């Protein structure tokens, strides 16, 4: 590293020796809200840091090389502080913890890597884990994207018909001297209402839908309501269970294999998942392990355990814990359910498509009947 930076570190340390009451320099710790959009930058950081360390670079050269490819100013400032800490003799994990640059389990893995001389290998595990977590999240999102797009498109088309077409049809049908069917009268009423108040009603409907979606699936304190709704859908519930079991096996197995204590690994597993039911399960297991309980006792004492982890997988975990091969078995579980989740994601779109087509067909048939029935009634009375 350049001599100017070393000089800056030494000179900044001198006043501290003269006046111990002086406040410590401000740390560019990255707050949680600033880390939301930095996931790709973080993945780039650890991926390239692992590669450069494996190539033989020392940690300072590797950090300087990685920093040149990062655009986020907060992240660059944090890396500058980390470099200064390392030049002052501090370990990498300590600087990461102080700057809050990485989650707790990643900091723990780096600490173990530094203490055991396996830093580059543990960084590789971190990169692999981040990629797996991104894959797990994307599979659930991709399974939900198709039905969401169809729903939005159907809603837009329905609003367009109600706003522009139904008012014109109502004008025609009202002028006819014929008794209108119930479905036609309902659609005419909707059309007249939207014609008068459409500029208020339509934006309000979309705003309410967005607000409900935010409350059910985004807001941290209420999104478990939306998750509970998803668990009532058979195909979606299966996909969520498979994704969570893949994460459970891979993350926990990887952390245990790297040497992280079981309680810390369970806490890290809790932090990586977003499904509240599984977060509560992992908390329950961690608390049981802390007082000396086995996995079997923790599982047996948890209500509705079968809905979260199937009995064959539970038996596999019990056997692996007794034989001392828990990390290997967990990783095997993760690989197995990763393949199953990929298959379920593909099949779910095929299963949902006919259901959505039936819903759209029902709407089209309803409008068609509302238009055709008055015409048949008029023909029956000899109106033409």
From TrEMBL:
<feature type="domain" description="Type II secretion system protein GspF">
    <location>
        <begin position="47"/>
        <end position="167"/>
    </location>
</feature>
<feature type="transmembrane region" description="Helical">
    <location>
        <begin position="145"/>
        <end position="166"/>
    </location>
</feature>
<feature type="transmembrane region" description="Helical">
    <location>
        <begin position="355"/>
        <end position="379"/>
    </location>
</feature>
<keyword id="KW-1003">Cell membrane</keyword>
<keyword id="KW-0472">Membrane</keyword>
<dbReference type="InterPro" id="IPR042094">
    <property type="entry name" value="T2SS_GspF_sf"/>
</dbReference>
<dbReference type="GO" id="GO:0005886">
    <property type="term" value="C:plasma membrane"/>
</dbReference>
<feature type="domain" description="Type II secretion system protein GspF">
    <location>
        <begin position="251"/>
        <end position="374"/>
    </location>
</feature>
<feature type="transmembrane region" description="Helical">
    <location>
        <begin position="197"/>
        <end position="217"/>
    </location>
</feature>
<dbReference type="InterPro" id="IPR003004">
    <property type="entry name" value="GspF/PilC"/>
</dbReference>
<comment type="similarity">
    <text>Belongs to the GSP F family.</text>
</comment>
<feature type="region of interest" description="Disordered">
    <location>
        <begin position="1"/>
        <end position="25"/>
    </location>
</feature>
<keyword id="KW-1133">Transmembrane helix</keyword>
<protein>
    <recommendedName>
        <fullName>Type II secretion system protein GspF domain-containing protein</fullName>
    </recommendedName>
</protein>
<dbReference type="InterPro" id="IPR018076">
    <property type="entry name" value="T2SS_GspF_dom"/>
</dbReference>
<dbReference type="Pfam" id="PF00482">
    <property type="entry name" value="T2SSF"/>
</dbReference>
<keyword id="KW-0812">Transmembrane</keyword>
């Amino acid at each position: 590293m350049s001599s100017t930076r070393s000089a800056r570190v030494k000179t900044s340390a001198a006043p501290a020796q003269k006046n111990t009451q002086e406040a410590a320099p401000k740390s560019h710790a990255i707050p949680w809200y600033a880390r939301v959009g930095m996931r790709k930058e973080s993945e780039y950081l650890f991926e390239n840091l692992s590669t450069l360390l494996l190539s033989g670079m020392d940690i300072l050269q590797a950090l300087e090389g990685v920093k040149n490819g990062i655009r986020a100013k907060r992240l660059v400032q944090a890396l500058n502080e980390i470099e200064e800490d390392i030049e002052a003799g501090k370990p990498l994990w300590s600087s990461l913890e102080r700057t809050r640059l990485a989650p707790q389990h990643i900091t723990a893995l780096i600490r173990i890597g530094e203490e055991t001389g396996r830093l580059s290998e543990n960084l590789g595990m971190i990169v692999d884990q981040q990629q797996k977590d991104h894959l797990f999240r994307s599979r659930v999102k991709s399974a939900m994207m198709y039905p969401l797009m169809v729903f939005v498109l159907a809603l837009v088309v329905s609003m367009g018909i109600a706003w522009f077409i139904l008012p014109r049809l109502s004008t025609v049908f009202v002028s006819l001297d014929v008794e209108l069917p119930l479905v036609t009268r309902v659609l005419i009423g909707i059309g007249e209402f939207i014609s008068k108040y459409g500029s208020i009603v339509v934006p309000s409907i979309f705003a309410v839908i967005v607000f409900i979606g935010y409350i059910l699936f985004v807001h941290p304190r209420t999104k478990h309501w939306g998750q509970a709704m998803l668990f009532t859908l058979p195909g979606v519930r299966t996909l969520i269970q498979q994704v969570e079991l893949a994460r459970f096996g891979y993350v926990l197995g990887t952390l245990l294999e790297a040497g992280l204590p079981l309680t810390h690994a369970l806490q890290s597993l809790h932090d990586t998942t977003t499904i509240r039911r599984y977060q509560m399960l992992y908390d329950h297991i961690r608390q049981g392990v802390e007082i000396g309980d086995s996995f079997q006792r923790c599982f047996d004492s948890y209500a509705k355990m079968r809905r979260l982890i199937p009995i064959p997988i539970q038996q596999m975990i019990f056997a692996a814990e007794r034989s001392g091969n828990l990390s290997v078995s967990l990783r095997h579980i993760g690989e197995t359910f990763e393949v199953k989740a990929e298959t379920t994601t593909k099949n779910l779109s095929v299963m949902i498509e006919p259901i959505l087509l039936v819903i759209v067909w029902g709407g089209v048939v309803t409008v068609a009947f509302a238009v055709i029935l008055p015409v048949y009634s008029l023909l029956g009375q000899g109106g033409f």
